[in-house]
Amino acid sequence: MSIFGAEVIGTAILILLGNGVVAGVLLVHSKAENAGWIVITWGWGIGVMAGAYAVGQYSGAHLNPAVTFGFALIGNIDWSDVPKYVAGEFVGAFLGATLVYLAYLVHWAPTEDPGLKLACFSTAPAIRNTVANLITEIIGTFMLLFGILALTGSQGVGTNALGALLVGLLVFGIGLSLGGPTGYAINPARDLGPRIMHAILPIPGKGSSDWSYAWIPVVGPLIGGGLGALVFDLCYPG
After folding, report:
1. pTM of the model
2. Which of 7, 14, 71, 113 has the fewest CB atoms within 10 Å, i.e. is most exposed?
3. What's the domain range around 37?
4. Which residue from 121, 124, 105, 116 is spatially nearest to 180, judged by alpha carbons?
């Protein structure tokens, strides 16, 4: 399996389970309606773990352009492979978001709040403040990259069974500790890919895709991911 194909499959699984749990908790008449934040964070952690188990042996299961960027910065992957990773991650995000739309097909119309529908695809801050929201995403993704490198010995998210499990738990922990202010995108493909599909898909009463905020969960994770990888490499050279 190619890097591109592996990242498509792994990221699609991540988005299907991650955005799927958000849809389950937020959409009207879902049996998981109002299940709460801990259910959402567990779902995202399991989504990361499942995606990593599925394709880790083929690509390392980055599933996240911030991970790819951070790994490239410290020489864990060749820069020539970055476009393959990023393209796969975004195609996978498009596919996963479309599957969530289909899985909850009859729940969009009864859900009147367009903000809840958007939240099933992309993130939004609890309190809208550009600087604060950007800082939150930087810190969260810094912890993601530093944690991945510490837990997996610099080898990648899914290169061994224990690594995939531990990184899933790391994402769960980041969600519990740091996810409240912004919904913790910590992944440009996770936010921008489904946001694009929200704009494209025929979701009844969907409202705006909130493009004025869309750059924060892209730029913040890239900065945080790069810093997390560089600081790890500085602290633990070789």
Report:
1. 0.96
2. 113
3. 3-235
4. 124
